[in-house]
DNA sequence: CGCAGACTTGAGTCCCCTCAAATTGCGTGG
DNA sequence: CCACGCAATTTGAGGGGACTCAAGTCTGCG
């Protein structure tokens, strides 16, 4: 990892708003800040690999990190995509001693790293940290349950429609926004090949969706909901 | 739920060996025993539904509990299957205030219930409980990651082969065992229609697998690994 | 302005789902 | 203990969805 450093003012600010630290009391925050190390990752950098001993907890400050598992043949299946504020690797962290998945920066990213042993040590003294970890895990579990069910219940166009709707206000107004990352990344997150995502967007043109590059216009959220 | 009761000697014994309580100190165990309520569920009984306010933590003592999500059209997708010793509902428990999935007894089952508010209260005082909860969540997250990747990477016969291998000793000896539950349940767990599971078993006959009712004989684990 | 990577589109294939019907397995009452 | 009947499972046929491979086309950056 490039440029290891102590958190500066800017990074401290971001960390304070992250999912993990935002719920902690001042003392726990201080303890965590104390052991935080900031790192700058180039795109495609691996944070850790499936099967390696787990010794670090990670938190995304900016950019995106992709979690995936590998086939013996080398094919990859994405299982999660973490963005700013998300906690990475809690999956294996408290459980076994090894990472269950591989983590890779999907674009140039800034992340915070915490030595896992020291996190455990702080958590054993301060219940607010322990609770926050459990909360984060709990939320992640719900998300993955949702992904799994979505995979099994819906077709590609339906999954894409649901993703788009989740980025809309609940009212039926037309909206437009920018995809936060590359389409190939979105495809992986939705469990699709990039071609399938492309075809899904193409089909959704008939249902009030216009896509140009990363720009998405949704002219009729109601129609989209009916897909 | 039928026959609510305080845990008797038999139930206390089972609870002590469960994933959650086995790691706790005596005092936390006592506190949890204090608030445990045992219930006997007939097959198909619903424990809780997706979207309901979450007020209970559950632990399977015997039998199996199926977690699934519902389509607007009423189709179901299983996301997890819990057996004896497993903790249910930790997914939504600490996170949001609502269950993220529906839980249904897959067969007549015995479960322990804990009032969630009181569990949180105990956890805020006793870090061993909080840690145990985080551990359980962590392990579950890893399992679901594995399911999701398995779904996306492997065909039905491959998924079935992997399931069978996971129930074998790592050595290459032939083995035979009884499936712990109905095939239709296994199908759901593997994300397959019952017909697809049946066809997979049929295909695996050519790779050293014999199935008669719930009895499975694996004559050549090596061949199975190559599928 | 041009290159490289990302995306789209087309063709072909395979996998798994759905529906329907036959068969087997298992628990229960006689 | 055996037969019956219901439910679970198996088998067949057909169809649709998504993957792979292979070209093209677009986009953004240098």
From TrEMBL, chains A, B:
It comes from the Bacteria. The keyword Transcription applies. GO terms for cellular component: cytosol. Keywords: DNA-binding, Transcription, Transcription regulation. Residues 154-222 form the HTH crp-type domain. GO terms for molecular function: DNA binding; DNA-binding transcription factor activity. InterPro entries: cNMP-bd_dom, cNMP-bd_dom_sf, Env_Response_Regulators, HTH_CRP, RmlC-like_jellyroll, WH-like_DNA-bd_sf, WH_DNA-bd_sf. Residues 20-122 form the Cyclic nucleotide-binding domain. Gene3D superfamilies: Jelly Rolls, Winged helix-like DNA-binding domain superfamily/Winged helix DNA-binding domain. This is CRP-like cAMP-binding protein.
